[in-house]
Protein 1
Amino acid sequence: MAPNQIYRALDRLGPRVRRVETLNAYMEDAGTPGAIMLCRICGRIDALDVQIDTAIDRLCGAAGFQSARVIAEIVGICARCRSTEASIDREAREQPQ
Ligand SMILES: [Zn+2]
């Protein structure tokens, strides 16, 4: 089966899987609408329960643009990695070389 066929089959599964455009990958979908947050350090993906589609549709409508699909993916650093980075920074400051 060619990759395009696999992607089309995954798309047909609909709400059970969610395409992650940023990673060109699929993840299990918990059914939570809204955006997803992707950690650029550890790769963790979490759902952000926010009704972003409605707001974007409204803004697009005001601009005369008809949206067909909203992709809301936020790339950043998760709380755990931020905490780890902060402790590494603290250790570096406490042990001057
Ligand atoms: Zn992380």
Note: The first strand starts at residue 17 and ends at 20.
Protein 2
Amino acid sequence: MTQKRAHNFSAGPAVLPLEVLQKVQSEFTDYRGSGSSLIEMSHRGPEYTEVDRQARERLSRILGLGDEFEILFYQGGASLQFLMVPYNFNTGKTADYINTGSWSKKAIKEAKVFGNVHIAYSSEETNFNKVPKDEELKFSGKGEYVHFTSNNTIFGTQYHKEPASDGLPLACDASSDFLSRPRDIKRYGVLYAGAQKNAGPAGLTIVILRKDFLEKARTENVSSMLSYPTQVGTLFNTPPVFGVYIFNYVLEWIENKGGLEAIDRLNRKKAGLLYEELDRDDFYKGTAEKESRSLMNVTFRLQNEELEKTFIEESKEAGMSGLKGHRSVGGIRASIYNACPMESVEALVAFMQDFRKKHG
Ligand SMILES: Cc1ncc(COP(=O)(O)O)c(C=O)c1O
């Protein structure tokens, strides 16, 4: 029986590589002859230990982490990291935050619980349609780190290189463009990402900490579950084993594709096709400034909300899912993460062309 696979443009949880899903499916109830699924075994046993080790090794190789970084496989989503970053590094101090959308705002709100927050830039006045140029950033001059959201999932904007940071370590919410391209990783003090877009299922959060920055984390009178120094290097509590299991295969898939450079080339191609279609005339209107456009979430509007509703309905009939914009902004959003196949993007472009002919 051939299986139905939708052209899935969900913003997250999002499409995963079919090969990965099939591999997990094939061994799910009997993991390598053990008679149990990997998610039914001890997280301290040899099977999971090996998966965990492989995932760390692959991630380290893909990002070029070397010996300078620690990796945590965590639960609680990126939202818990909004809290943990300031809890560890900005209690009673000052940190600089760049506000480029709803997720940045949530990070800022949490940071204010613990310390002073200096807003180095905000694009809120223009409805978050861009990310800053370096010269637009106004730093406090006394920050512990500079926090930014490298891809703004809701507003369809993305930094195409790391922002200036006044010599400070970067703290980054990379949830929606994690492993989508190479990064200047040495500039990051802490980088975190919920897995459910580019890396695996919801329930796993990847946290990467530079060791010299980690040394600055508070250690006195801390809550163990919230303390990076307590968590690093141990399985302090049960890790999200299912998430790490899938993540390990996604990392293998990335390496088989040729690593982040190759993935980046593919992502540019996919996004390029969609933006070319948006720019053809003014039937579709991209919402992000051109220089800030995201390669992961392509956001656009049509002439009116009625037509947007029709677009969504007709796209579903054409076998596409997940194209509705975030509930807070409306419009259309095509999320085209790493695992979204080129064929899905081509199908969407063809659909957009037909839709324009029919309704333009
Ligand atoms: C950029 C960004 N940050 C944070 C979050 C929140 O992640 P979580 O639900 O895993 O806490 C999301 C979720 O979509 C996101 O896109």
Note: Residues 21-256 form a domain with the Aspartate Aminotransferase; domain 2 fold (CATH 3.40.640.10).
Protein 3
Amino acid sequence: MSGLPATAPVVIIGAGCIGASIAYELGRRGVKDVVVIEKEPFAGAGSTSKAAGGIRAQFSTPLNVRISMMSIARFKTFSDEMETDPVFFPVGYLFLLGDPGSWATFQRQADMQRSLGLPVQTLSPEGAREIVPELNIEDLLGATFCLDDGLGNPHEVTQSYVTRARQLGAVFHFGDAARGLVMDGGRVTGVRTASGTISTPMVVNAAGPHAAEVAAWAGVDLPVKAVRRHCFTTEPLPMARESLPMIVDLKSGVYMHRESGGLLLGYANPEEPEGFNLSVNWDLLERIVEPAMHRVPALEAAEVSNGWAGLYETTPDHNSVLGPPRNVAGLMLANGFSGHGFMHAPAVGQLITEWIVDGKPSLDLSPLRLERFAEQQATVEANVI
Ligand SMILES: Cc1cc2nc3c(=O)[nH]c(=O)nc-3n(C[C@H](O)[C@H](O)[C@H](O)COP(=O)(O)OP(=O)(O)OC[C@H]3O[C@@H](n4cnc5c(N)ncnc54)[C@H](O)[C@@H]3O)c2cc1C
């Protein structure tokens, strides 16, 4: 761990995909000497390292569609911009709908998404099987598919941000936990860490599942809760071809995509309590295997190769909280991504940077202000998996 600088124009707490993206975007806009404080010894060690890598714009709220479209545009040019190998694979997201209510909702959402310029298709069950011949479609009513969606590599993306941000003057201060904020009246003026204090006029909270703790140091009540989520992978399977889309079986909540020649299976257990438990609940595999094999009978031949648990940083309406809290100056929130933080990282980096540098973001983010909860103005994002 190198020494903590005494001052910085901006201090970011957390070097996950969000903090790293913001550090890079600030550097791109000419803000030098940004300091990123990360308690772990390297970047992306938190939720970012557990992400399934899904990138999609098929959301239920127009704002999330717009944020995703902004991100996807940046993912498409990412390897040129960052001079890396490709990190984005537009294989598409296939949502499978089996009950009349959700099928009707997804058809309405597809109209909304198309009106925003997203090339989403509504398909018959047979149309879905043309894309994935291994699907059992007997109990499906329809599907939506968007080839702008796909998969990305959270590790590569985050490391690329760190590398480029450093080239642009950012300092990553690893292995030192932020322990408190220095306050002067209603303004944040610094960050206290285990090794010292750094003065700054602007702190960005990018602490992922720990964001509520950081906000509380400034007296801000941020309703971000940590909830454990699981992924399991299989040994290589013939159906796991490179073009296989992300498949989301909405009825069961199981999703799957290609991973290392096999499949990654994910599931959000609705009964999971809040908390920071990261142990793998292997019993959950039983709950996933049955619906997964129902939808894709070829999975009967699959052998499980690995499993891991990570933390979603969830809010009551499953939307992020972006921007400054009303009653505290010098604090910027980039929190509560509720399962879609990786895919939104490029746009969030850009938008938060615009807020800091230009005074306002180029997209109206007011629906994501913290105060929406107290004002009872929150709109739920329904398409969270
Ligand atoms: C199983 C699983 C699957 C997922 N799949 C997807 C997906 O397919 N697509 C998608 O878009 N998203 C997915 N997500 C969500 C995504 O991983 C998160 O939304 C995203 O990584 C959040 O990034 P972050 O930078 O805000 O948080 P993090 O990656 O957690 O980074 C926060 C960092 O802050 C650091 N930190 C915290 N407190 C302090 C402190 N006091 N001092 C210093 N450092 C601190 C932490 O160590 C951490 O490195 C998934 C999540 C899980 C768990």
Note: The radius of gyration is 21 Å.
